[in-house]
Amino acid sequence: MGPVVLSTPAQLVAPVIVARGTLSITTTEIYFEVDEDDPSFKRLDSTVLAYSEGLHGKWMFSEIRAVFSRRYLLQNTGLEVFMANRSRHPTHSLHPKWDSI
């Protein structure tokens, strides 16, 4: 892990859940760490969480094939990360707080 270049509040949007946390970018990786102390996260059903990927995600730049910005109502709202193995990982979107970037 290299030094953190950027760290910002973000949300991981997945089927059935929206998890608040922190998106960090280093010189070699992208990280997402869910805020397990967030009240909305504590209310989520543990059965649903068992099927949710990327809540504590780490993606190496060498494994990333493409990153696309996603928009809603003409505003940047998220990032979608595609991996070299041709999968989307996470199978959801990362929604950073854009005004802090």
Automatic annotation (TrEMBL):
Residues 1-101 form the BEACH-type PH domain. GO terms for cellular component: cytosol; membrane. The keyword NADP does not apply. CDD domains: PH_BEACH (cd01201). One of its GO terms (molecular function) is protein kinase binding. One of its GO terms (biological process) is intracellular protein localization. It comes from the Eukaryota. PROSITE patterns: PH_BEACH (PS51783). Keywords: WD repeat. The keyword Phosphoprotein does not apply. It holds the Pfam family PH_BEACH. This is BEACH-type PH domain-containing protein. It comes from Hucho hucho.
